[in-house]
Design a protein that fits this description.
It is built from eleven helices and ten strands. By secondary structure, it is α/β, with parallel strands linked by helices. The chain has one domain. The strands form three sheets. A five-stranded parallel β-sheet has the order 4-3-5-2-8, with helices on both faces. A hairpin with a 2-residue loop joins strand 6 and strand 7. 38% of the residues are buried.
Length: 297
């Protein structure tokens, strides 16, 4: 029975993905944004369990009770923001490069350019905020080919659609559970690539415990391990959705004083990344698209 339900959820997700992709690639931007805003508001109204989860995350970030009016408003806005993310992600494939370059603002771009000019490669650590897919389209417009790691989705057809879409945006996609993922990333860095890692959720259960917004949670150790193994700088780079466009902020590279103890250095560098994520999320809480519990109950 459990397997049947899981398969059914997978088929529903597959058809939903195809529908959203078709709408995003077909509808005019103004119409699509309005429709997906309605989808977000509808989801907020009819999904009490997910709404409660998002409200708990927002309450922790805002430092207020879950029934606070500000938390309720930010939770509703998070559903609307996430719906826009899905439309924009698919619609971005249609945007000409010159329009993407005109509408995408980047602050601190030198933190990426300096690393690539030095030939060290660069690791961009992103929280699930704003629209990181549009950022890939922007990088493609700049002539930069990012490499990204993606969670392995079920059914396999869904992952294939997901990967092909990311590739259409200009990314090279490596499955998280694929063989030799760490070696592939190190090879990409050795070839002076940009590695984009959405890293504010630990999917393995073996992450590093950090403090964010006054409570402990786990973040993946991969970005820090990769940086320490290759010497590539680790840069926190949130991408925000503005009223009609997008804005990326590339922070200065995370830095630590090496201790000679690899485990201690991974923890220290991950804590630096966590501090960057905390700063990024605090700047736009409702743009944070984490719809699973971010902290233990």
């Amino acid at each position: 029975m459990t397997r049947t339900r899981a398969e059914l959820r997978g088929r529903v997700a597959l058809h939903a993905y195809r529908t959203v992709a078709w709408l995003g690639r077909t509808l005019p931007e103004h119409t699509g944004r309005l429709l997906f805003r309605w989808f977000g508001l509808l989801a907020y109204a009819v999904a009490p369990g997910v709404r409660a989860t998002v409200a708990a995350n927002q309450a922790q970030v805002l430092g207020r009770p879950v029934d606070d009016p500000l938390v309720r408003a930010s939770t509703r806005d998070a559903f609307v923001s996430y719906a826009r993310y899905w439309f924009d992600s698919f619609h971005a494939v249609r945007l000409p490069f010159d329009e993407v370059l005109d509408r995408f603002e980047c602050v601190g771009i030198e933190n990426m350019q300096d690393a690539l000019a030095a030939g060290t490669g660069v690791i961009m650590a992103l929280p699930h905020i704003g629209n990181w897919d549009v950022a890939a389209r922007w990088l493609d417009a700049l002539g930069i080919d990012p490499v990204a790691v993606a969670e392995q989705l079920e059914p396999p057809e869904l992952f294939d659609l997901f990967a092909r879409h990311r590739e259409a945006l200009g990314m090279r996609v490596i499955g998280l559970s694929s063989e030799g993922v760490g070696q592939k990333l190190q090879q990409a860095i050795a070839s002076n690539h940009l590695i984009a890692l959405v890293a504010d959720r630990d999917l393995t259960g073996r992450g590093v415990e950090v403090e964010m917004f006054g409570r402990t949670r786990k973040l993946p150790a991969g970005p820090a391990l990769l940086s320490l193994a290759t010497g590539a700088p680790l840069v926190v780079a949130p991408v925000y959705q503005t009223e009609d466009a997008w804005r990326c902020v590339m922070y200065p590279p995370c830095t630590i004083d090496p201790s000679g103890n690899r485990r201690a250095d991974v923890v220290a560098l991950t804590e630096q990344m966590a501090a960057g994520f905390e700063r990024a999320i605090a700047a736009a809480p409702s743009d944070w698209h984490v719809f699973q519990p971010a902290w233990e109950p």
